[in-house]
Amino acid sequence: MRILFIALLLSLSSFTTFNVTNKKVILSEIEYTRLNEHVNEIKSCTAANKGYSRKIAFLVDMKIKSGKNRFFVYDLEKNEIIDQGLVAHGSGSETGIKGDILQFSNLPNSNCTSLGRYSVEKSYKGVFGKAFRLAGLDESNSNAMKRAVVLHCYKEVPDDEKEYYIINSHGCPMVSEQFFKRLEKIIDSSDSKIMLSVYY
After folding, report:
1. d(C-alpha 165, C-alpha 127), whole Å
2. Residues β-bridged to residue 174
3. Where would I find the beta strands (DSSP E) of 34-149?
4. Contact between residue 199 and residue 64 where contact means Cβ atoms under 8 Å apart
């Protein structure tokens, strides 16, 4: 019994928990380490460039399954996740290989998600309603504007986590309508550009 209790304590200690609007964000040690690495990268970038927000950042962990929350809103001042949601990846990123292995591309017409840092730009009205243009800041996503990779919502993206994979996009970070409304408020109220980091 004692061994079972110790094993349970050890398994719980390998997870990091954040409280988000009465919902818990639970990240494994590996996921938390990955998140921290990219948070630190964003902090370095924003410290060197006054045009970007030093308060809020968006992070997407593509190692997490699409049916689970993997789009995180991060408070850079308090060092905590303040919101989370589901986000689709591009249909071209599917490999069909077991183990949820994805591929990524910056090429036009690839329908792939592109990894890297993005600048969330001005909004516009498109096919999916209001959307935010994304400017790729790295070589791995430099074609974002050319490919029309934008942050937008779609009614088929669920609000809550699922045990199955959600719908794919054409390469855009596509979220639910409710989550988009929350992101929209943050973006529109920010006095500087918000950085989005998509990593794997």
Report:
1. 24
2. 88, 152
3. 52-61, 71-75, 80-85, 116-126, 129-136
4. no
pTM of the predicted structure, to 2 decimals: 0.90
| Pairwise CA distance, residues 91 & 127, whole Å | 18
User: Of the candidates 38, 54, 35, which has an alpha carbon nearest to the alpha carbon of residue 46?
Assistant: 54
Pairwise CA distance, residues 141 & 177, whole Å: 25
Which residues of the chain are under the pLDDT cut of 50?
Answer: 2-13, 22
The closest of 165, 150, 178 to 21, measured between CA atoms, is 178
Alpha carbons 127 and 199: distance in angstroms, whole number: 27
- The pLDDT, as a whole number, for residue 197 is 98
* 119 in Cβ contact with 134 (< 8 Å): yes
Q: For residue 182, give the H/E element and its range.
A: helix 177-189
Residue 199's identity, in one-letter code, is: Y
